[in-house]
Design brief:
- By secondary structure, the protein is mostly helical.
- It has two domains: about 170 residues, NADP-dependent oxidoreductase domain (TIM Barrel, Alpha-Beta Barrel); about 80 residues, no CATH class.
- Helix content is about 50%, strand content about 5%.
- The protein has 13 helices and four strands.
- The protein has a four-stranded parallel beta sheet, covered by helices on one side.
- Helix 3 packs parallel to helix 4 and helix 10 runs antiparallel to helix 11.
Length: about 290
């Protein structure tokens, strides 16, 4: 079941008969395993995970956005019940080719024989909870590197030295961040439902990694295409967040900066259009009346 974004979408699929369809196909032997890929928040992932007897799941995970979407906690929870496959281990190639020179130098000093892509893939292979990586390749050299890394990898292969390399490289990447948000969540919950840490994280990703990647993260983190948007445009400047931020970020002021950059008029229109197309603003299906006689 591809691209489940939240419990509402899974419930819609169930109302259309997806659950019964899966069971029929499994019973007939046409499929062996019922799996789902997920693109949404951690809380929604937990709901979907527990609502059906899934056989495996596919989530986004890498060292750059360890707590994005299902996150490390979601990975750990799912791995207790099923195999977990990882997509975007290189963040669409960004962790292989688009790193700041300082981060590349840190990885090279840590192990000259290992490329930045190798460091990113090994970060995942080091985790016992990871079953399989989906890593895109477009050359024989990349294929050979991926095979060599997977063949040599084992869970728990990293020690303190490797952990320090990742820590320093990530710090070098985050030097390009525009908002010094740590994602602590003290500003939450927002009375209007704005995902403040998610908005800041996506804005920082846009500056540190690239516009496309940051925008993808923004759309996912804010549920821009869902009925209950958590985007900056929902802010009414009540001021509750400013007083709670331990980093003393002017949250209200900064959230407006994020809105101007990442939620311009055309993006708001696209979100409204997507919601209409996907039928997210829908009435609950009417119960069938009992047949007389």
């Amino acid at each position: 079941m591809h691209m489940i974004t939240d419990m509402d979408l899974w419930l819609k699929l169930k109302s259309l008969g997806a659950e019964e369809w899966l069971e029929r196909k499994k019973k007939s032997g046409q499929i062996r395993s019922a799996c789902f890929s997920f693109h949404g928040s951690h809380d929604e992932f937990v709901k979907v995970l527990g609502d059906y007897d899934w056989n495996a799941c596919l989530i986004q995970h890498n060292y750059f956005d360890e707590n994005f979407q299902a996150g490390a906690k979601g990975l750990e929870l799912a791995s207790l019940r099923m195999p977990v496959f990882i997509m975007e281990p290189l963040l669409g190639g960004k962790l292989a080719t688009d790193l700041p020179p300082k981060a590349v130098k840190i990885f090279k000093n840590g192990n000259p024989a290992l490329s930045p892509a190798g460091w990113a893939l090994n970060w995942l292979w080091n985790k016992d909870e990871v079953t399989l990586l989906l890593s895109g390749m477009n050359s024989m050299a990349q294929l050979e590197e991926n095979i060599a890394l997977a063949s040599a990898a084992r869970a728990g292969m990293h020690g303190e030295a490797e952990a320090k390399v990742y820590e320093n490289a990530l710090a070098a990447i985050k030097e390009k961040y525009k908002v010094r948000c740590t994602g602590c969540g003290y500003c939450m919950p927002c009375p209007r439902g704005v995902n403040i840490p998610g908005c800041f994280s996506a804005y920082n990703t846009m500056h540190a990694v690239g516009f496309r990647t940051g925008m993808q993260q923004f759309i996912t983190s804010t549920g821009l295409m869902s009925e209950r948007s958590a985007s900056p445009s929902q802010c009414v400047e009540c001021g509750m967040c400013d007083s709670k931020c331990p980093q003393q970020i002017p949250v209200m002021e900064t959230i407006r900066v994020v809105e101007r950059r990442m939620e311009p008029a055309w993006m708001k229109f696209a979100g409204a259009l997507a919601r209409a197309f996907l039928g997210r603003k829908r009435a609950k299906p009417k119960k069938k009346s009992a047949r007389k006689g």
